[in-house]
Design a protein that fits this description.
The protein has 2 helices and 2 strands; from the N terminus they run ααββ. It is an alpha+beta fold and about 80 residues long. This is DUF6458 family protein.
Length: about 80
């Protein structure tokens, strides 16, 4: 469920809960309105949390060692973390 559909559920639920005065024998429209608003709010919260930017934590480590016998320099780069 995306943000737009969550807002639509909240709006439809508010209309059913507060603006509709019809009486249906086997359905409580006010209760259905409250349920739709609750589902819409829950979907909105989940959508916002899922759309939040992720924090990437990457660590780059570089080591450089010189071989004493040959004088050759060896360099090692290592990157860890999420991409």
């Amino acid at each position: 469920m995306r943000i737009g559909s969550s807002i639509a559920l909240i709006a439809i639920g508010a209309i059913l809960a507060f603006a509709v005065a019809d009486v249906v024998d086997f359905v409580d429209l006010t209760l259905i309105g409250w349920i739709l608003m609750g589902v819409g709010v829950l979907g909105l919260i989940i959508s916002i949390v899922m759309a939040a930017p992720r924090r990437d934590h990457r660590v780059t480590e570089s080591r450089q060692v010189q071989d004493p016998s040959t004088g050759e320099t060896i360099r090692r780069d290592e990157t860890r973390g999420s991409l």
